[in-house]
Each structure stands twice: as C-alpha cells, then as structure tokens.
Amino acid sequence: MSSKQLNETSKFLSYVLRHEPQAIGLQLDSEGWADIDSMIAGAAKDGRILDTALIQAVVSSSDKKRFSISDDGQRIRAVQGHSTSSVSLQHIEKEPPEFLYHGTATRFLASIRQQGLIAGSRHHVHLSQDRSTAIAVGQRYGKPVVLKIEALRMYQQGFKLFQAENEVWLTSHVPEKFLCEI
Ligand code: HQG
C-alpha cells in the first residue's frame, strides 16, 4: 500500500463519512456509524475499489486519528469534522485547559473580528491544544495565523466545550471577546 493510496483513500473516507454519504448511497446513523461492507459496495459502484485491509490501514495510519472502527469490526465512523445533517454525534463535554488555539488564514481575520469564530459548514468550530497543530490547520487556507482562545473563561461563563475521541476540541461559536492575540 503506497502512502499516496492511503492518503487518497483517507480523503475519500472523510468525504463520505463527514460530508456526502449519499454520494455512494451510504446510510450513517446519528452517531456517524456506517456499515463497512455497505461502504465498500457503494464505493465499488462509484468505481472505487476498497477492501477491509486498505480501510484498516487508513484508520491505523491516520496522523489525526480521524476514524474509528467499532469493536465488532463491522462499522466505521469519522470521529469529528462532520457537515452532514444526518449525523449529530454526542461528544463528551469537558472542562478545557485555560487556553486553546485555532489556526486560520490572515484573509479571514477581519471577518473573525466582526463575528468571532463560526462553524461554517461544519457542526463545530475546531480548536487544538497546541500552536503547531493550529498552524498546520491555518496553512490550508493561506498565510496562517494562530488565534489564542480563553477557553476556560468561556466554559466558566456557560459555553459548552467538547473533546472528540481524537482530542480535537469542539464548540459551537467563539465570540470575539474570548480571542486574545488577534
Ligand atoms: C474560518 C482539519 C471568516 C476558520 C483540521 C477556518 C481541523 C471564519 C474556516 C478541521 C470565521 C473553516 C477543521 C469568520 C471561522 N469569518 N472565516 N467569522 N470563523 N472562520 O475547514 O477549523 O484534516 O471548516 O478559521 O485539522 O480550518 O480534515 O475548519 O479557516 O481539525 O481531519 O473558516 O479540519 O482536519 O474551515 O478545520 P474548516 P478548520 P482534517
């Protein structure tokens, strides 16, 4: 299995498990789970040949632990990052550390100063525990900039914060007043 094949398959799994399951006629339950055999069959109709060994290799090699497989080995899901309305994953609510970080591109800063951080097409705003992850995230959209968020203060004021299985922090909205170093 080449790293190119793993990477392309990972992008395909993100696409169908987070965003467009209907593209291959796949059903996700409200917790995001899909039957692996149905996913393989749906992908095959679309001309994409998957097998369980390839899927398992993608799951175990994912740098960000994007996916998980059920204990019985029958089902797969993306652990966060969804935009599809068919899923409403119940993430664990947690007290965050004092600060969390969000990586974005400089061209979004004016709008972020107006509106705070909004989820856009995804279900949540994504935050990370360290600056280096945030820089990598921001780089995808242009010149990266890292925003520091007063996460604990948000939590103490009643905002809900969640941590996904892969340790990415999630929240609905970060009002501008909780952004520092912006
Ligand atoms: C920006 C990747 C204008 C926001 C990463 C971001 C992450 C605003 C973009 C995960 C804004 C949304 C998610 C506002 C936020 N005005 N722009 N008010 N508020 N934005 O891709 O956080 O590799 O939906 O800063 O690692 O970049 O896919 O979110 O630039 O964890 O597993 O709007 O995706 O994970 O972009 O990335 P995205 P994100 P994977």
From TrEMBL:
Molecular functions per Gene Ontology: NAD+ poly-ADP-ribosyltransferase activity; tRNA 2'-phosphotransferase activity
Keyword Nucleotide-binding included in the entry's annotation: no
Class of enzymatic activity (EC top level): transferase
A biological process from GO: tRNA splicing, via endonucleolytic cleavage and ligation
E.C. no: 2.7.1.-
Record's keyword terms, sorted: NAD, Transferase
NCBIfam families tied to this protein: PRK00819.1-1 (NF002012), PRK00819.1-4 (NF002014)
Family classification: Belongs to the KptA/TPT1 family.
HAMAP family recorded: KptA
Function (record text): Removes the 2'-phosphate from RNA via an intermediate in which the phosphate is ADP-ribosylated by NAD followed by a presumed transesterification to release the RNA and generate ADP-ribose 1''-2''-cyclic phosphate (APPR>P). May function as an ADP-ribosylase.
Protein name per the record: Probable RNA 2'-phosphotransferase
Organism whose genome encodes this protein: Pseudomonas wadenswilerensis
Protein encoded by which gene: kptA
